[in-house]
Amino acid sequence: MASSIFSGPCTVPAVEGKNYFGLKPSVKNNLRFNDGKKTSIIGCPKRVFTVRASEKKDGPIKKLGLSDAECEAAVVAGNVPEAPPVLPMPAAPAGTPVVPSLPLSRRPRRNRKSPAMRATFQETSISPANFVYPLFIHEGEEDTPIGAMPGCYRLGWRHGLVEEVAKARDVGVNSIVLFPKVPDALKSSTGDEAYNDNGLVPRAIRLLKDKYPDLVIYTDVALDPYSSDGHDGIVREDGVIMNDETVYQLCKQAVSQARAGADVVSPSDMMDGRVGAMRKALDAEGFQHVSIMSYTAKYASSFYGPFREALDSNPRFGDKKTYQMNPANYREALVEAHEDESEGADILLVKPGLPYLDIIRLLRDKSPLPIAAYQVSGEYSMIKAGGVLKMIDEEKVMMESLMCLRRAGADIILTYFALQAARCLCGEKR
C-alpha cells in the first residue's frame, strides 16, 4: 500500500529539511497536482514524489504542507492524486480448467478468507474466566504425581495447593474445585469425615481464603471420598444405596464447607431431592449467599477411571448405575434439570463433557440457568496420551475440545487443562 503520489511544480527549488520532505511551497496556491496528462507551470520541471507505506524510514514521513482546502480543491478540479495500482489477479496453476463462475448469490467462504475476517465473525469465544480448575489435595507435604493423569498431582494442602492456585491466578483462572484424597483410617460406611469442620477440605478452604479472599472456591459434595465402600451414598447390607439417609449426610457436608468459606457447593452424588434439602439446610444456617452447582446430568461413564485413581475412591463392589444416569438416555436429563431448577439450583452441570455435547445443548436451550460442563479425567488423559505419542497436536486438540464445549452452550468448564489452556490464551508458552 502506498500514500498519495503528488506532482509538485513551484517557483522554488526542491528542499529536504526538518519541516518538509519534497517541495517547500513559497507562495500559497502555487502548487498544482498532476492531472494524469501533463503539468503546465513556467520555470519549474515536473516532480513526482512517491512514499510507500511498506518502506522503512528512520522517522515519521514528512507531509507536503498543503491545507485541507487545497487538497479538496485539487480533487474537485479533477487533479486527483495518484494511488498505487490495483494488484493483479493471482494466476492459477497450469492445467487449471477454465470454467464459468457458478451462479451463487451466497458464498460463505467470503467471510472466512482472512484471519482478520475469521476473528470478526467468530461466534464463540473462550477465556480463562470460563475455567474452573479441579485440584486434588492430600494431607502430605509433597506433591504426588497421578500416573493416569500426566501433569496432575495430589497437592500438599499447605504448600503445593497454594502455589498451584497462584499460578492459575497469574493467567486469569480464579475459580477452583477441590477433591480430597482422604486417609483410609478416616473412612467409614456413613462417611462422617465429610462434615468434619477441621477436615482436609475445610482446612484447605480456610487457608486459601486467608491468602486469596477473592478466589472462587467450588467444593464437591458426595460421600465417595469418605466412604469405606467407595460409593456416593450410604450402602445398605443388601447393596442398595440409601437415598434419604445419604441426603441427610450431604446437607451436613455442604453446611460444613460453607462455614469454612466455600462459594459454591456442588452435589455430585445424584441422590434424589438433595438440592432442595441442601438449599434449606444452607439457608437455615445463614448461608443464603452460597450457590449450589448441581451435577444435574452425571452419567455412569467409563471416562471417570483416572479420577478414581487420583482419589483412591473406586467402589468396593458393584457400580454406580443405580444413581448415575444411563449414557443411552437423553430426555431423562430434562427430568433431572426440571427437578434441580425447582429445588433451587443456581448452576446445572453435565458430566462428562465432550461425549455429551448434545446434553449440554439440550440444557442450554431449555434452561435459563448457567450451564457447566466437566471435561473429565478420561478426556484429559486421552488427549495427553495422544500428544505424547505424537498422534495429535496436544495443544490444538485441547483448545478445540474446550471451544466445542463452549459452542455447545457451557458457560463454565471444569477442566484439568485450565492452567495450560489459560497460558495458551495469554500467549505464554511453558
UniProtKB/TrEMBL annotation:
CDD domains: ALAD_PBGS_aspartate_rich. GO terms for biological process: chlorophyll biosynthetic process; heme biosynthetic process. It catalyses: 2 5-aminolevulinate = porphobilinogen + 2 H2O + H(+). Pathway: Porphyrin-containing compound metabolism; protoporphyrin-IX biosynthesis; coproporphyrinogen-III from 5-aminolevulinate: step 1/4. One of its GO terms (molecular function) is zinc ion binding. Keywords: Allosteric enzyme, Chlorophyll biosynthesis, Chloroplast, Heme biosynthesis, Lyase, Magnesium, Metal-binding, Plastid, Porphyrin biosynthesis, Transit peptide. InterPro entries: ALAD, ALAD_AS, Aldolase_TIM. Its cofactor is Mg(2+). Residues 106-115 have a biased composition (Basic residues). Its EC number is 4.2.1.24. It is found in: Plastid, Chloroplast. GO terms for cellular component: chloroplast; cytosol. The keyword Magnesium applies. Residues 98-118 are annotated as: Disordered. Its main location: plastid. Catalyzes an early step in the biosynthesis of tetrapyrroles. Binds two molecules of 5-aminolevulinate per subunit, each at a distinct site, and catalyzes their condensation to form porphobilinogen. Homooctamer. Belongs to the ALAD family. PANTHER family: DELTA-AMINOLEVULINIC ACID DEHYDRATASE (PTHR11458:SF0). This is Delta-aminolevulinic acid dehydratase. The gene is LOC105127788.
